[in-house]
Write a structure and sequence with these properties.
Length: 221
């Protein structure tokens, strides 16, 4: 049996809610395999973003473990979670979280500048140009200011940043929520292509077209 890219085991997350406690995750477990695209659906407020941030190693639940390519981290070990995230996971936030006062290239190659040893400027430039082509923006100048881009272009730049380190896993939170129908369909096609190329993809979405492209769905109540 082929080992999974990611195994989330018995994740539990509870928040105070007024006079009581609100259970977001109750022993949640998940396997993600290479080339698989999993969609997470459910009404707003059911914990989709919370789940994705935990799977990306950005937040820690109260209980559970996260294993990526066999490397296991308990939720109480933030260094191990950060190591797994930096080595294997790309994350695309719902809003893109781009730096509006920076250029396209400066936004995309930002994750590379935290590597040690850091790649040279020439290597960063080459990788930026390659990943722009991957997301369908090969003709876009890396020097162009981000605040001059359309919504669809901004989301593709954010996707390029998530892919710049060639992650084994891509996690995307409502990637098409702010896009028009044409741009949303184009981005959904890109995500499916990444999965078909071997990346494990997990995404949360209300977009039925996006969810229809997934190999399987998880519904949070």
């Amino acid at each position: 049996m082929i080992a999974p890219l990611l195994h989330a085991d018995r994740l539990t997350q509870v928040y105070p809610d007024g006079a009581g406690l609100r259970v977001i995750l109750d022993g949640f477990s998940l396997y993600l395999h290479r080339g698989e695209m999993i969609g997470v659906g459910g009404p707003s407020g059911t914990g989709k973003t919370t789940l994705l941030r935990i799977l990306a190693g950005l937040s820690a639940p109260q209980e559970g473990t996260l294993s990526v390519l066999g490397e296991r981290a308990h939720v109480g070990d933030p260094r191990a979670l950060a190591r797994i995230r930096n080595a294997h996971i790309g994350y695309l936030a719902q809003t893109g979280d781009l730096l509006n006062d920076e250029s396209v290239g400066a936004n995309i190659d930002l994750p590379l500048r935290f590597l040690r040893p850091a790649p040279s400027r020439a290597e960063r430039k080459g990788r930026t140009q390659r990943v722009l082509a991957v997301v369908g923006l090969g003709g876009l100048s890396p020097e162009r200011p981000v605040d001059t881009l359309s919504g669809g272009q901004r989301q593709r730049v954010a996707l390029a940043r998530a892919l710049i380190r060639e992650p084994d896993i891509l996690i995307a939170d409502e990637p098409t929520a702010s896009l028009d129908a044409e741009a949303a369909a184009a981005l959904a096609t890109l995500l499916r292509a990444r999965a078909d190329a071997g990346t494990g993809v997990i995404l949360a979405s209300h977009d039925l077209d996006v969810l229809d492209r997934c190999d399987r769905l998880i519904h949070l109540p």
